[in-house]
Give the backbone structure.
Amino acid sequence: MSNPDQPLLPPPAGANAPLDRMVAEIRRSAGTNLLGLLLLLLGLFTVFSILLPGAFLQRGTMQAMMFQLPELGLLSLAMAIPLVSGGLNLAIIATANQAALLMAWILTTQMPPDAAGGDVWLWISIALSAGFLLCVLIGLVTGFIVAVIGVHPILVTLGTQTLITGISIWLTRGQTLSGFPDALIRISNETIAGIPISFGIFAIVALGVHILLTRSVLGIEIHMIGSNLESTRFSGVDTRRVQIWVYVLSSLLCWLAAIVMMARFNSAGADIAQSYLLITILAAILGGIDPYGGFGRVTGLVVALLILQTISSGFNLLGFSQHLTLALWGFTLIAVMAAKRFTSAMLARYRSASFQRPK
């Protein structure tokens, strides 16, 4: 029988080697060829500059791109965190729209029509707090069903999306709410030193998410459960807690996107930005986030968003149909996924051949 007063012996050398290698790979992996994405972005700028001399590389065009990017960028970040964890959140648009409807209802029906000055900011704060709490609740419920009950994230978030959208349509009868205070509208219409405030919000949030995923314990744990859930659980990580946090964080990013969309469109409705759902997945995968989980960086996602926005703005200036842009984005998603699978298969064959080669 072992002596309880005897100090515990350290684990044998190399006992934690697999876990250490996993963490090291997560820290080291960029999840994407960032240089390749930057070269593609530079190539697109060059092509559109040649095709649209004097129209594309203009301050107005660049500013318009920065005005259009933030809501899609915030929603893409909301999709990216579950993807890195090996999950998916198909309810990001529905969550953002319901949060926007709640905040809009407070501002349009509960705030006194003659409110001014500090009273307006008080009601805006109340509305934003209500939207925040709603998104936390949605994230907690979603995370609980995924992590504790064990239902697949696709089924959970598909059901959540349908439920939330149905409730939103039922409460509003399919109508939109509009007419928000100017103080809120300025978020998406004002600039500071030529930079839209909404773009500044997106940049700060993207930096925060990048730091969270790469420099915090929670971020490393999110990567770990995406890489191998069972191994992470056996390593002592509370995987249920991490998965719940994943969907809470995703929902809170939807809340920020809802604020930006309200400010930009001056309206809230159950069917706003429905086309953004697949585009957020496209941006994440194009940016190098592994759809099977475990790897990916925010830097690649941001560059991918810039690429997609550049294509959209360039095609718009050329007079092409928006549907053609969507078709090109869909083709890009298929091509990227096929290229990833082909590259992975070739790399696996190379490693196998190297391992079997006699030394």
